[in-house]
Backbone:
């Protein structure tokens, strides 16, 4: 009788191992160069110039992701902004770390953000907390690939004491 229980226990353990493999395999590889498709994106209250370009370069290794955002011809309220290149490396261990954010406006220092990245199935979720001219802010970014892997989707939800915003950015794989 004990052999039956032992055999059943081993079978359940093996079955649990088989179930765990897809959970590990669900972490997609976002590595590559991605270009924003303005026409397919929803930018909320932002109205960028038609010349605006945003390129996202992602290098993913194990539990580390390096993201470089290159912005060209950006405007804020029709005021031209300098082109920018911002690189951040994220350690995907669910621990909160300090990083420098994007410069919001020329002459204003880059904000310090507390960033906490984590995998949620096949989605990379990044929570950013910091202070801005609008007071305390929280932004949650969620990245996932389209079913065919040709598009990187970034959902951005930002909350502050003055406003809440949502965006859906659609990036296409570049060369």
Residues:
């Amino acid at each position: 009788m004990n052999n039956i229980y032992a055999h059943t226990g081993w079978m359940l353990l093996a079955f649990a191992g088989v179930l765990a493999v897809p959970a590990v395999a669900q972490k997609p590889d976002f590595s590559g160069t991605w270009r924003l498709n303005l026409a397919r994106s929803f930018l909320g209250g932002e109205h960028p110039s038609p010349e605006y370009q945003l390129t996202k370069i992602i290098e993913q290794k194990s539990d580390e992701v390096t993201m470089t955002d290159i912005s060209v011809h950006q405007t804020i309220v029709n005021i031209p902004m300098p082109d920018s290149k911002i690189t951040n490396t994220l350690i995907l261990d669910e621990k909160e770390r300090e990083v420098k954010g994007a410069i919001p406006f020329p002459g204003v220092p880059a904000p310090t953000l507390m960033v906490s990245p984590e995998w949620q199935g096949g989605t990379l979720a990044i929570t950013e907390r910091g202070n801005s001219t609008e007071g305390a802010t929280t932004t949650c970014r969620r990245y996932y690939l389209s079913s065919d892997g040709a598009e990187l989707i970034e959902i951005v939800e930002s909350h502050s004491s003055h406003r809440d915003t949502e965006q859906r950015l659609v990036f296409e794989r570049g060369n």
Notes: The CA atoms of residues 120 and 157 lie 16 Å apart. The radius of gyration is 20 Å. Confidence is low (pLDDT under 50) at residues 18-23.
